[in-house]
Specification:
By secondary structure, the chain is an alpha/beta fold. The protein has helices at about 20-25, 30-45, 55-70, 85-90, 130-145; strands spanning about 5-10, 45-50, 70-75, 95-100, 125. It is about 35% helix and about 20% strand. Bound molecules: 1,3,4-trihydroxy-5-OXO-cyclohexanecarboxylic acid.
Length: about 140
Amino acid sequence: MTKTVYILNGPNLNLLGKRQPEIYGHDTLADVEAVCAELGEKIGLKTRLLQSNWEGQIIDWIHEARDAAQGIIINPAALTHTSVAVLDALNTFDGPVLEVHISNVHQRESFRHHSYVSQRADGVIAGFGVEGYALALRRMGRLLA
Ligand code: DQA
């Protein structure tokens, strides 16, 4: 059976490519989706990329992933630094969780230095631009092999 990976994206990432391109680059989330779908096909993983500006929706997708996916890649965006609820939801998921940040959060404001999600994440990628998603997907391929 082909394994499925949910690639979840939090608030404001719908504006990727338009929003602060000096920090987040010019690629859009649709570009990320295409790259991940292509790579996923190559390494035998089905990918489902989702984005919401609503915390509760992200939590509902994590719950859905409990049955529908074997791994989660998540860029929780600002929820990284605020959401115990997203952490609690991830703690209900049994498979590997990889956390991605496009920017190097450790080089930025101090409020971005703490991540609730990192308490659960099996790996964290930050500062590799949107390439971080593909790197995480490759790692996920190994973890799910
Ligand atoms: C981000 C970093 C967060 O601090 C920020 O709130 C985001 C995006 C990143 O991908 O670099 O929205 O998660």
